[in-house]
Amino acid sequence: MFKRIFLIVIDSVGAGELPDSDAYGDKGANTIKHISEFTNGISLPNMQKLGYGNITDIIGVPKNNNLI
Question: Average pLDDT of 3-25?
Fold first, then answer.
């Protein structure tokens, strides 16, 4: 039986700052959150099902409490 791995790479849609962000002028970086604020909410149903809303606050993408 084959096992499957799904890898999703979303470039330039960061979900928060790194611990050293201040050293690089990125303090407060959170691209996906800021996009959702600017647009008054976004819809990412498949990413929501995968738990993307659990990483950071994204208007329109609620937390998914049904994760394994």
Answer: 86
